[in-house]
Amino acid sequence: MNSDKSESDFANKVRFHLSKDELERQMRKIHDREESVDEKMRPSGSENSGHNCNTSSSSSLPRQESWIFESVGGYFLANENLAKMSLPCQEQLLMRDLIYAFSGVPSAYVKPDIQIDQISEMSAVDIAKIRFRLKKTFTGAFRALANETLPLIGYYISVQSYIEETNMSPNCGRTRLTLATALSDQLQDYYDLQSKLETDLQDKKLDLKDLVRQVRPWLPILKTFSNMASSARGNLTSAQVLTLLDQFYRDLKDTDIDLKERVNKILTSTSRAYMKIVQLWMQKGVLFDTQHEFFVEDTEPSSTMSSTLLAPEKCCHAYWAERYRLLPDRLPGFLLSQADDIFLAGKYLNILRQCNVSLKLLQRPLAYSQGDLGHEEIIKTSYELPAHKFLKVLVEEHNLPLHIRNLKSYFLLQEEGFSETFLHKCHEYLKYNVERLIPEKLQTLLAETLHKSNDFIKDNVRCQLKVCDVATLLGRQHKAQRAVEDEEEEEKESCSEQDPPEVLNLYGYEALALGYETKWPLSFIIYPELLEQLQMLQRVLFFLHYVKHHLTVLWQSPCEGTGLQLTNRSGKLRHRMLMCMLSLENHIIQDITEPRWQSLTLTVDKAKCIDEVLNKLESTVEECLRLGLLPTANTFVKSLYTLGHVCLNFCDFVESSIGEKSTKELEQEVVEYEEEFKSFLTSILELVSQLAKTKDIAERDSCKQLLKRLGELIEFSDLDKDQIASNI
């Protein structure tokens, strides 16, 4: 009984970290007890029986002189003299130390490549890279088997330290805390394995080969967990951590079924808090993001309740464009393809709330799991519900299709008889400088023009006078777009701040623009910035129409066009000018805007979501402007205005020459106008011919269509014909 009690005391004491003096004192006491017991019970001639590992455990204990005390992590542990131990005892001792080492317990026989006292100063990321080695005193066969499992020690320390640091950190964030919990849950199987191994070792049912066999599957698992823990450290957002976890899963081989299942469980558990934020935003329109993890951020003060209705003048497209700020670094990679749907779903719910529109909300739990596309279907449904409702409200209650038709009718001058009647009323007034014009008078003339129209929303059309010409606006806009594409924000700021609009000496026909007033919620689709783009195209069309009107009046009114009868040459020149204006106008309307507006109308009729209409309207306006005015070379628009002024100057010349000059003098000046007109028209054709070489297929086709229309209006040399014909 004394022997068993001493053995138990010894085993318990060795498992604790004791000071060197205390350990020596306990070992001396145990050794003295064993010596006295052996002298009484050992028969003569059995000196070597104490070295047999199959005898009692008390006789297998080494003598005091076989013990060596080594410092391990600041504590002193017993280190047996392996040279005096049999192979079975070495195997048992090695397995015991390996089991402890796999749990992060310091061992005297498993040591790192660096000094023990340096480990406390290293980061967990570096600990995972440390190589552990066995004492060379063990036989080569034992070391060969055990060396395979030694990396497990560093992996476990790295994972366990991440779990402890995260749980102890007050500001770690929900995602990191959930990751630590998920890793801890996955390690439970590892702890169960360690417990089983220790039990089997005590029951002498375990050998080193079996231990390695059972531990080997955990090497890739803990290696992956260690890499996950190491990657999750640092200054990363919750979304970036989730993206890393998702990438870890994608990088695993399909044959690693168990590991992929474990990583997927960690990813699902870790992403649960983030997906809950997504669910509340998409299905309620509520941003509950106390730790600033979500990629959508509300710019309104936190005290502002989302259910509070805004004033009508505040609720507009610009307000909702700036209400929410998007932060891409807070968006997990696995939600990147659904980012627009996620953002717009919550946004439209809040817009409908501002419109006081009731809607039955979706209530479905949202979670992410690799291989399961259920979250994509829920996100899609959550978006379609408010997007469809918003479109339905605009179409049925606010006549959206009619307003879009009006944009074509008035901004593209397609309303039958509108442009001719309006020009007839105000063409004399528009000859004056813009500074002399009164907008209210123009608005009165516009109202008289629309008086007999059956359009019940015709009062939305307004007259405006601009102080900057179209070419300058297009040039500034194109420069700002290049600054954005090149990520040169400083250049963009200089475009808007250092280049203020030039106040040019514009005439009324150059400055006149039509506006269109829309109220909320219609202003979400037809908003001022979009109308400004469309206005530039409308101003060019109106200028061409104004020039064409003057040339037509000059021919039809004898009192004004008597000069045209003086020479045949002047009549031909006037006809070429008129055909040129018609060709330019027909190119913009028939070749560019008409087919695209027809496509827009079909989209509006068939659309199921508001974004289908909004995106199509924006792309239609952008294409009409880009292909009709070719803003990449703003000299094209300048050339159009210059050519138009040549035509207007010719009209003024004819009107002022009645009865004052001889036929010969008139003929000579007509020749000068003819040469000037031909020169500018040729320069336009050469410019368009160069633009036809662009890589953009739509722009190239537009240039070829324009060359085909204008090519018949001028007499070219053989060289000019070949050059232009090659681009048609």
TrEMBL record:
Keyword set, alphabetical order: Cytoplasm, Cytoskeleton, Microtubule
Biological process, per Gene Ontology: cytoplasmic microtubule organization; meiotic cell cycle; microtubule nucleation; mitotic cell cycle; spindle assembly
Single Gene Ontology MF annotation: gamma-tubulin binding
Pfam families in the cross-refs: GCP_C_terminal, GCP_N_terminal
Protein's cellular compartments: Cytoplasm, Cytoskeleton, Microtubule organizing center
InterPro entries the UniProt entry points to: GCP, GCP_C, GCP_C_sf, GCP_N
Identification of the protein by name: Gamma-tubulin complex component
Organism: Drosophila melanogaster (Fruit fly)
Lineage: Eukaryota, Metazoa, Ecdysozoa, Arthropoda, Hexapoda
